[in-house]
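re: that chain from earlier
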Amino acid sequence: QVQLVESGGGLVQAGGSLRLSCAASRNIYTFSAMGWYRQSPGNQRELVALITSTGDTNYADSVKGRFTISRDNAKLLTLQMNNLKAEDTAVYYCKAIVSYPYEYWGQGTQVTVSS
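^ sequence. v structure.
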């Protein structure tokens, strides 16, 4: 079992920055991968950024060059979001992929970008 707690969401103006954190109850370097996902009203949850156990990263085209995913320490995953746009408004979720089929989600944190 893995507990994940997101924080850092809030209200920001377009062009601003936010840093999301995901605190894990276990060593995240032992996981197959971790990711950030987001879901806005009426839309499906979508992948924002992923980092594998080897440190490889993958980003949605819509956030490339603006967002950075990183593992700050053994129990903290972060998402640095710069140059935020109104379309980035969503609930952001942290996901731990320990090893198939064991996957865990956090409760989500709201990000609202005003234009």
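The chain has a mean pLDDT of 97.
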